Amino acid sequence: MRNSGPNAPSRPRSAFNLYMQYRLSHDEDLVARPFIERRRLIGGEWSAMSQQQKQIYRDQAICEREKYLKEFDEYKKTDEYKEWIAKQEISQSLKRGKKTTGKHNVEDGLGDGVSSKFRRVPIFTQEFLEYNRQREMSLRHLRKQVTKLDEETALLSKHVENLANAGNNLEQQIKAAEAQLSLEEAVVQKFCKELVTTFADLPVPTLDKSTRSPSKGSERITLSSVDSYLSRLAELSSSGNHETLRTTAVEFLRAAIRSKKLTMCST
């Protein structure tokens, strides 16, 4: 129910509400969604809009506000509005009268205080005009607060949407990293198998330090000992005391590359 009379001008809409109404009139899918989701989606769109795009709806809101104030000023001059105000005053007076009916005389001493708190404002007086002016100022302040809250709601909706998008992006990055890691592990595994095939017939000397008199032994390459085998081979090859081992290792490498048994290296 209107609080300014049954035929009072319609209240002006905020810029955000104008945009929301525009979107709902052009998108049936939005209309079918729940209110909260619908407001969140439109709020996200509103936050993403530039100030220039928003200004179109702000200008419309200003025009509506100015039109409303002008029409309401004219409406307040009508007999209909004055009669409505008078009826409201009478209705409020009757309600107050019903609340006080049947009370004990001991409450009579409070009568002056109650009547002064809820006293009627006589119409067609300067006091009445001042009362209306104060109400209009209060309404304008409330409209500004509503507009501000609408914009803050739109901003928060956009923030929630950004967080959701960031979470999705992070999940995709993790999946991509896992796929890349799996690919690289497969490459390393393939390379190790090729090395085992290449040096299968080339044992490297080792020293058995588990006894008091160290004895010489040999180590053959396996999938589980590729790192230790290559480290020992590199150590012996660079020492200058195992030239035959070094030459043989180089020949094995070249032969494997020529026969394409070792595809991860080139001469």
Automatic annotation (TrEMBL):
**Any one biological process term the GO annotation gives:** regulation of gene expression
Q: What superkingdom does the record give? A: Eukaryota
What is the originating organism of this protein?
Mesocestoides corti
Task: Report the protein name in the record.
Answer: HMG box domain-containing protein
Instruction: Report one GO cellular component.
Output: nucleus
Instruction: Give every HMG box domain span.
Output: 9-76
**Gene Ontology molecular function terms on file:** DNA binding
DNA-binding region(s), chain positions: 9-76
Pfam families the UniProt entry points to: HMG_box_2
PANTHER family in the cross-refs? HIGH MOBILITY GROUP PROTEIN 2
Record keywords: Coiled coil included?
A: yes
